[in-house]
């Protein structure tokens, strides 16, 4: 293979011949443009791969961390992971695991964090003022929950929520912890999801199927769940428990979206 080095003058002559004498130098023009087209396409491909790799590595993670740490330092937010993320640096957002349907997912040591790609918080802009009395805050939370769920008493639920957001486990709420709870309550469907998780925990001691030495009778995601049982009788018991506990929390099952599937080695027609 011979490598031919062309000077800038030679390139000008080739280009002029292609433009002025295109019909007489068709083969030369095709070779000239094809060679440079390959080079240009290769450069564009490398640029596209570089941009895609940088986008997947970052995915806006640094902006999310800066916003969270800014609120953590100003005591507007609190959480178990904030110290490791903002102070000690033990936790990093890691690489962008997935970007789909407007949601970014970050993976770090098996922990997956999902954030809206627009990075626009859905929290209410109303924030709590510093110096708010604890009794006044609890009263506001109770009123909000009772209004949203249509119940007359929410004392037990509020106590559970307060314990859940008490990061320091000192039976006291600082402004950041109270702010977190207030913002969470204003998240769309947060109360429904939270209550649903509580209801499903009541099924842990009821029969299901054995997998890996553990008893499994339900698989759930948000407010969707799959009840698992060995027979119809056990399945009906689980369904009755879910229905009863849901009613206590002011929720009800959607029968139109409820389906039953039977898995058996025997050939049975569905009923």
Automatic annotation (TrEMBL):
<keyword id="KW-0812">Transmembrane</keyword>
<feature type="domain" description="FAM69 N-terminal">
    <location>
        <begin position="38"/>
        <end position="111"/>
    </location>
</feature>
<dbReference type="InterPro" id="IPR029244">
    <property type="entry name" value="FAM69_N"/>
</dbReference>
<keyword id="KW-0472">Membrane</keyword>
<dbReference type="InterPro" id="IPR000477">
    <property type="entry name" value="RT_dom"/>
</dbReference>
<feature type="transmembrane region" description="Helical">
    <location>
        <begin position="32"/>
        <end position="51"/>
    </location>
</feature>
<protein>
    <submittedName>
        <fullName>Protein fam69b-like</fullName>
    </submittedName>
</protein>
<dbReference type="Pfam" id="PF00078">
    <property type="entry name" value="RVT_1"/>
</dbReference>
<keyword id="KW-1133">Transmembrane helix</keyword>
<dbReference type="Pfam" id="PF14875">
    <property type="entry name" value="PIP49_N"/>
</dbReference>
<feature type="domain" description="Reverse transcriptase">
    <location>
        <begin position="177"/>
        <end position="262"/>
    </location>
</feature>
